[in-house]
Fold this protein.
Amino acid sequence: MIGAAFCAATAGHAQEEPAPPNDFEALKSCRSIAGDQERLACFDAAVGVVVAAQESGDLRIVDKEAANQTRRRLFGFALPDIGLFGDGKVGDEKQLDLLETTITSAQQIRRNAWVFQTEEGAVWQINGVPSRLRALEPGQRVIFKKAALNSYFVRIEGQAGVKGTRIG
């Protein structure tokens, strides 16, 4: 069974043009047709449209695991809310506000500033690092929690947290 994350490839059209007919909704509506022949004809037509949209790249079908991996790779970027990763329920928001991962590389760029990369490939920078913070090293666990103004509260190996931003 496929976990559902369906999205059109052109998300920018939603605000500027009238919304196009939703082919997936048309497919779902076939279930309410009472007559077997009419229902089958409706399903055949609607499935053909959905399959053609998927084959042309206008429709992507993504399972939950792929959506979760993408969510982790994009964590820390300011993205518009287009409903790609869920419907905004509390469970979805918690996953976007907190990320626990591992540092793969780290470099001190100034006395109190570090740049490091996580296993998802994200590059982060922390400035104003207190001297009591131990040096960053590959393999250390890091937790990011969303803070104000596109910044994040970064806690490394359970040490006191510092503010950081994603830079790549």
Notes: The helical segments are 13-16, 23-29, 36-56, 64-74, 90-97. The chain has two domains: 6-62, 86-166. The beta strands are 6-8, 59-61, 98-110, 113-118, 123-126, 141-146, 152-156, 162-166. Confidence is low (pLDDT under 50) at residues 1-20, 88-95.
